[in-house]
Write a structure and sequence with these properties.
Elements (H helix, E strand, L loop, with lengths): L1 E9 L3 H12 L4 E5 L6 H5 L1 H23 L9 H12 L6 H9 L3 E4 L2 E5 L2 E4 L2 E11 L4 E2 L15 H4 L8 E5 L3 H12 L3 E6 L10 H13 L3 E4 L3 E6 L4 E5 L6 E3 L1 E4 L3 E2 L26 E3 L2 E3 L10 H15 L13 E4 L4 E6 L2 H6 L4 E7 L4 H6 L6 E7 L4 E9 L2 H14 L3 H5 L12 H6 L3
Parallel strand pairs: 1-2, 1-6, 2-3, 6-17, 8-9, 8-14, 9-10
Antiparallel strand pairs: 4-5, 5-6, 7-15, 11-12, 12-13, 16-17, 18-19, 19-22, 20-21, 21-22
Helix pairs in contact: 1-9, 3-4, 3-7
Bound molecules: flavin-adenine dinucleotide and nicotinamide-adenine-dinucleotide.
The site of nicotinamide-adenine-dinucleotide has 26 residues, from α7, β9 and β18.
């Protein structure tokens, strides 16, 4: 059986949903293929439910600080409120009728099923083959990477899929991996009274960020009662029906927990989507694209599958560029110099552009500065919860910032100005002569700029 379309979009997470909707609104005949829920990982099992948990946890953390700043506060944490909000308000019970309705209202032909490339501009879903006159957009996202730890595969471990559906918190949780998923969940579960241990194989948490960011995250988690183990790799896992035992290198006694969350990174299944049929390597870790998101003749890729930063804002940014290219509209091509990242721990740890090490590895002449938030007026006023810093990475020869980290209360919001500076290559001298409102958290950027000299 064969059908025709202008464009077939495979996978309708944030990237594919944006491409399909925009192309249909521009008048193209678009088939959107989705194997699970329209919206993908972000609204159902990732960004949105995790940030709902964190919002609830933040209110608990602040209530505890109110006891120092304002008087007696009595709060008894109730995870049921969080689970209800995720189920009822955020995910509609993990039902995508609203998102699917929005997409079909734009004119997208929604096809439920698993798409597979069978040749250039051709996608099979079950028995039906769709011929795409203009081409195919791959937006199939990523899935949890399960490390090859002895015994792990046979145990009922959790991934982000399970953790977002938790109705009752376990008494204890082992977290394998100290990246953004691991640290965000570890902290919020600890706030609600769960005994959490993070096992990170690398030297520090949040290894893609500045070393100071990883150290800050570890200190914050420890202060909230999380046991943080770094430089420790899991070697063997067992489950005895009641709980997990994880043996780590060099230790006789295992770590124990009622549940185990695997948060060890993401991977893609290129063989499963049939990329060999269009001449791509099915064993590769991503689908490489050019700056217009082209992955081949009549083939585009957007989102996690491209391997350049697994974030929803990256998927939708790339989607905009792919849409422009498919419609033949002139416009800027993909530029990842000012990619922002925010890990929503307390304190929030946000960064843009290059770390100091990355800048040095690129051969830049680098100057850096670091200013603690508690040395600023606003940090002092804030009191408890004022941990954090602003770190700047400047390219001395061009006189611009190439990277920055803003960690602290509202660190993700403070990042915005720094992201503009890196993106637009605003001269450091110009940033130094701006007016910074007093007493804000972002005003800590000013002494950091001055310390660059
Ligand atoms: C716990 C967690 C928290 C996160 N928090 C944040 C955050 O706060 N901010 C942020 O920016 N990012 C966050 N992320 C990352 C973010 O979720 C992803 O970067 C984003 O969802 C990627 O979008 P995507 O369109 O590439 O793919 P996905 O969201 O993975 O969607 C891909 C879709 O393709 C479908 N699909 C796959 N294969 C096929 C096939 N063969 N045929 C048809 N359909 C298929 C899938 O069912 C899925 O619906 C988080 C991730 C996790 C795991
Ligand atoms: N706030 C956000 O924007 C946000 C939140 C969550 C996730 N994300 C996205 O999702 C992606 C995936 O997140 P993640 O935390 O799963 O992955 P990650 O790759 O960032 O971190 C995984 C960590 O697990 C460790 N690890 C791997 N195998 C191990 C083992 N056997 N023993 C001990 N440690 C091991 C790694 O050293 C690494 O530090 C992120 O890169 C990010 O792009 C974003």
């Amino acid at each position: 059986m064969g059908e025709q379309a202008d464009v077939v979009v495979v996978g309708l997470g944030p990237g594919g949903e944006h491409v399909a909707g925009a192309l249909a609104e521009a008048g193209l005949d678009v088939v959107g293929v989705e194997a699970e829920l329209v919206g993908g990982e972000c609204p159902y099992w990732a960004c949105v439910p995790s940030k709902i948990m964190i919002r609830a946890g933040n209110s608990l953390a602040e209530a505890r600080r109110a006891a120092i700043l304002a008087g007696t506060v009595e709060v008894s944490a109730d995870w049921g409120r969080v689970a209800d909000r995720i189920r009822e308000e955020a995910t509609d019970g993990w039902n995508d009728r609203a998102a699917a309705g929005r997409l079909t209202a734009k004119g997208v032909r929604l096809v439920r099923g698993r798409g597979r490339l069978t040749g250039p501009r051709r996608v099979a879903v079950g028995e039906t083959v769709y011929e795409a006159r203009r081409g195919v957009v791959l937006a199939t996202g990523s899935r949890p990477r399960i490390p090859a730890v002895d015994g792990l595969a046979a145990t009922p471990y959790w991934t982000n899929r399970d953790v977002m559906k938790v109705e009752q918190l376990p008494a204890s949780l082992l977290v394998l991996g100290g990246g953004p998923v691991g640290v965000e969940i570890a902290q919020v579960f600890a706030w609600f009274g769960c005994a959490v241990t993070v096992i990170e194989g690398g030297e520090r948490l949040l290894s893609r960020e500045e070393p100071e960011a990883g150290e800050l995250a570890a200190a914050a988690l420890r202060a909230d009662g999380v046991s943080v183990l770094t430089g420790v790799r899991a070697e063997r896992v067992e489950h005895d029906g009641a709980g997990f035992a994880v043996w780590v290198q060099g230790e006789q006694e295992p770590l124990r927990g009622q549940r185990l969350l695997v948060a060890a990174g993401r991977g893609v299944d290129l063989a499963g989507i049939g990329v060999a049929a269009v001449g791509l390597d099915p064993a590769a870790r991503s689908v490489p694209t050019d700056a217009r998101m082209r992955a081949g003749d009549g083939l585009w890729a957007v989102g996690d599958i491209t391997g350049v930063g697994a974030f929803t804002h990256m998927a939708t940014y790339q989607a905009q560029i792919a849409v422009g290219d498919i419609l033949g509209r002139p416009g800027p091509t993909a530029d990842y110099r000012a990619l922002p990242r925010v890990t929503f721990t307390d304190p929030e740890i946000a960064a843009v552009g290059l770390t100091e090490q990355q800048a040095r590895e690129q051969g830049l002449r680098v100057r850096t500065s670091l200013v603690p938030i508690d040395s600023s007026t606003r940090g002092f006023i804030h009191g408890p919860g004022n941990d954090g810093f602003v770190k700047l990475v400047a390219d001395v020869d061009r006189g611009v910032l190439v990277g920055a980290t803003s960690a602290g209360p509202a660190g993700g919001e403070v990042l915005y100005g720094l992201a503009v500076a890196v993106h637009a290559q605003v001269p450091v001298t110009s940033l130094q002569h701006m007016i910074y409102a007093y007493p804000t958290f972002h005003r800590a950027v000013l002494p950091a700029l001055e310390a660059l000299h």
